Amino acid sequence: MNILKAKLVQDIEKEINKLTLVIKKLETKSRKFSLIRLVCFLSGLILFISLFVLKFKISAVFIGLSFTSLFLILIVIHNKIDLSLKKFKAYILIKEEFLARVKLNWEKIPKIREEYLSQISPLEIDLNILGDNSLLQLINFSVSVNGLQKLRKWFSNSDKEITSIVGRQKIIKELKKLPRFRNRFLLTSRLAFKSGINKIEISSWLNEEKEKKGLKIYTLLLGFLSLLNISLITVWTLGITENFYYQPLLVYMFLYMAGNKFSRNIQTTSEFLYDEVRKFSSVFRFIETYNYKKNENLKKFLEPIINSKVSPSKSLNSLKLTVEILNFRKNPYVWLFIIAVCPIDYILAIKIEKFRATIKNQFPLWLKTWTTLEAYCSLANFSFLNPEYIFPEIGNSHALFTAEGIGHPLIKGEYKIANSFEISSSKSTNIITGSNMSGKSTFLRTVGCNILLAYSGSVVDAKQLSLKIFDLYSCIKVSDSVVDGISYFYSEVKRLKGILESIETSDRESLVLIDEIYKGTNNVERIVGSRALLKFLANKKVYNIVSTHDLELVRISEEIDYVKNYHFKESIVEKVMSFDYKLTEGPCPTTNALKIMEIEGLPT
Known about the structure:
Elements: H1 3-53, H2 57-103, H3 122-126, H4 135-139, H5 145-154, H6 162-176, H7 179-192, H8 201-208, H9 215-237, H10 246-258, H11 260-263, H12 266-289, H13 296-301, H14 303-306, H15 312-317, H16 320-326, H17 332-341, H18 344-359, H19 363-385, E1 393-394, E2 401-406, E3 419-423, E4 429-434, H20 440-456, E5 464-467, E6 471-475, H21 488-505, E7 510-514, H22 523-539, E8 543-548, E9 563-568, E10 570-573, E11 576-579, E12 584-585, H23 593-599
Parallel strand pairs: 1-5, 4-8, 4-9, 6-7, 7-8
Antiparallel strand pairs: 2-3, 2-5, 9-12, 10-11
Helix pairs in contact: 1-2, 2-7, 5-19, 6-19, 7-12, 9-10, 9-18, 12-16
């Protein structure tokens, strides 16, 4: 393991040990307070009953009130202890996740839920971007599906403007230096949304809810009638007038019930909204109140929340009073009295309508900023947990792609072999030959994976990496289909055809990664087809890296100037095969198929 990463592991383990001790102390404290509360309750009850039986009623009341007050104070303190315990337990889980991600312990890294994995592109499959033990599983810390989808977009072929990439890099660099912010942001989000967010219910409500026309006028009418009723009842109580107050009261109650369309489902709506905004307000409050100091790029990005005309946390918290008033509905007598005094349902309906109108245009922007911040923090955490990785240079490269010490981020450090590689305009076609299991496919994925990391704005697994902006295509994992009646070879042909069509319509340079070209057909036709495809790509000046078993294919470099050969080799000592996984220039000098057969006792 790299020295920097080893030190990071030690630091995280020390922090986990400290947090474990804190949790043990809090658990002990919580148990003590549970016992103290029980003793307090029983002592107060026994003393109260004893004094009451002995007819010391004043003393009994005093003792009862004193112990009740003490009991309530103990509840408040105990709740604070339990809340701290809850936070520390959530925080230790985050730190344990950090450790699992550094060590690539996949069992302890949360999987991406299957419902989020629809419409996976060939590139995402080929380069292990999505799915189990994938790059996004390693990187993603988002609690919302929107945050994950934002990461997916950055790793796609569609978001590669150099200004956007450099802008993301700047924000990620600032976030990398703010571990306290990242940790608190992640903790706040996870405590607010324990099971994650699949669908933003409040967004649906804001878009679907229609303005209730006539609500204010109807409420004013009911308000006038309620004041009239109070006035008539007051003067009747004082004996000034006769008892003719009940006629306006009946009219008021009739109109109150008749306007049900305005106040329908207000209880359910208010409780649902309060539950939603309570979660979001804690996250927005943290973002609003944090001191960003000189982190200008991050501060500018968060302006829709920080400098919003309407404070997100305050506007969301404004609904709290509405729900607290509606809690009186649980007591029908109290609620009936409130209804008789004022048109409370209609007043609260106006308040909810005002709340909707206030945040309708603001909330989508707040939500987008928050979920994008999740994606930024995921990449910043990835950078922090891999201190040996570097930020690549985008757009200033003399070659299409130049890398020194490039490795695969999904391979553990003790097994990882780094290579250096360049794709230049003079050698646009790169053929990699080698034996079975020598590392050809892994190298293609290493190049592709780091390209997508670079375009996302993230760090890359390399000592140095510079690249231009280009479109990336791959044909690595191809499968047949029994259901559709498509053979492996035909699937490969369709994939390559789709790539060529995309290249024709693109105005960018392109890089194509092809693993074991045309391996689904016979040797003679494979060689002919492969040579034709490589010549076509060379004539179109399309950059490509092609791996193959066919040593005959390396001779195409004698026919085309743009071709450069590389290989991976193996060694066999005392019937034990080993690989160094080092990329070397030139065609592969050895093969191993017959040797493997011989080692395993098959006839050769």
